[in-house]
Design goal:
alpha+beta; about 25% strand; Ig-like_fold; 2 domains; Ig-like_dom_sf; six-stranded mixed β-sheet; three-stranded antiparallel β-sheet; about 280 residues; signal
Length: about 280
């Protein structure tokens, strides 16, 4: 490994056991998994029993203990020995044995895990130890992406017609087919609050006598009929005067009926369209 050299620790002039650890600190990002390497140098065949202990010096707590026993043969010690692991308190689900040699695997590293770790090798008559520093690297900054524009541009809407019941201050964007348009929630409410259209009324004297358009048309037709009747009676009376032997006065009952009808028409309100006719009858 470039930039990293192994620190060999020997106990005794001709010690058969030794440890090798990196001199450079090991860096890990917050929440990542740290791998603290440690290589064992054992004689062949390996001793029948030895231990490897990892301890965090900041707290003095045991992190992981590896016990190897019943070692035999010339194969690597992880194959020829019977291994047993013991976790320290608080490291049961975080600490483990690395993929190679006696490396320590520390999961979910945090700021409280940064510091110096000591690894010790214990044999029957020898002891060796070394230290590895763990540092916390800053988390990588997220890659800035295109910022979303919070501004919502509404499509232009045509001005509402003059007789429209939709409020002029509200504008809604076009909705896709099948979607509920916000304006549809307002229109039934506006229809319910619209005052009913009243019929057209007319008054002549301002005294409270009102008639509808249909009554006005009926009265106008009645006046025209009475006018035709009076005119016919008048023409008939003139002819009777011009004809010899017809000097008898006109029928008194018919005259009284005609005068009564004219009096009633004078007392009743007459439509605007018949004001001139009404004036001509008031003689």
């Amino acid at each position: 490994m470039v930039g990293v050299f192994l620190l060999w620790v020997f106990v005794g002039r001709c010690s058969p056991l030794s440890l090798a650890v990196p001199a450079a600190p090991v860096a890990v990002v917050p929440g990542g998994t740290a791998l603290l390497p440690a290589a064992l140098r054992l004689p062949a065949p390996p001793p029948p029993f030895f231990q490897v202990r990892w301890r965090f010096l900041a707290t003095g707590r045991l992190v992981l203990l590896l016990a190897a026993q019943d070692c035999s043969g010339a194969a690597p010690w992880r194959r020829s020995c019977r291994l047993a692991l013991e976790h320290g308190r608080g490291y049961e689900s975080r600490a483990g044995l690395g993929p190679r040699e006696a490396a320590l695997l520390l999961r979910d590293a945090g700021p409280e895990d940064a510091g110096t770790y000591r690894v010790s090798l214990l044999g029957l008559d020898v002891t060796a130890s070394a230290e590895v520093n763990l540092t916390l690297a800053p988390a990588p900054a997220p890659t800035p992406g295109p910022a979303a524009d919070p501004t919502i541009v509404l499509p232009p809407t045509a001005p509402a017609p003059a007789n429209s019941t939709e409020p002029q201050g509200l504008r809604f964007p076009a909705s896709p087919p099948g979607a509920l348009h916000p304006g549809s929630l307002l229109r039934p409410l506006l229809r319910d609050t619209e005052p009913p259209l009243a019929p057209v009324w007319a008054t002549l004297d301002g005294g409270g006598a009102v008639v509808s358009n249909a009554v006005r048309l009926g009265l106008a037709g009645l006046v025209l009929c009475l006018l035709a009747l009076i005119t016919g009676e008048y023409v008939l009376s003139i002819r009777n005067k011009d004809t010899p032997g017809t000097d008898s006065p006109p029928d008194a009952a018919a005259t009284i009926t005609t005068l009564s009808t004219i009096y009633v028409l004078q007392e009743m309100p007459i439509p605007d369209a018949s004001e001139e006719l009404y004036a001509s009858l008031s003689f």
